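The following record pairs a protein chain with its ligand, magnesium ion.
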Amino acid sequence: MERTFVLAKPDAVQRGLIGEIINRLEHRGLRLVAAKFVKVDRGLAEQHYAIHKSKPFYEGLINYITSAPVMAMVWEGPNAIAAVRQTMGATHPSEAAPGTIRHDYGLEIGRNLTHASDGTHTAAEEITLWFKANELINWSRDLDCWIFEE
Ligand code: IDP
Ligand code: MG
């Protein structure tokens, strides 16, 4: 079972789309492991987006992610990292496939509603950055056998 880190970004929170994002991931069959509502400070934002430090959009990105609270989550399931990125859609909403969150709710790359880890290494790093070990809940659902084959 794979775990991935997900954010409903400030625009999603301001627009009342936390529930919609959770709904889509729940309906996909993914299992929630952890969630918290966070006002991101600049230090956390800089750590989370360290890989983008040299990019021209970096300052705007830090301002965006610290501009309002975010909903930070961990979700798990088979191939959860790829599954969540597929449900989110391409980074630029204008390139995201219809039916994805970024397509259905977004227009601009700098207001693309969600973050999701892009690989096993970043997923592990991001989960550790945002959550303490005891905030991650190991549990099972009665319907897991109808979603997970094994
Ligand atoms: P991802 O969120 O799909 O993984 P990344 O390339 O990792 O995309 O970029 C991180 C975030 O930085 C994007 O989700 C978006 O909010 C922002 N971003 C990326 N490229 C641009 C850009 O060209 N202009 C403004 N913001 C950008
Ligand atoms: Mg990324």
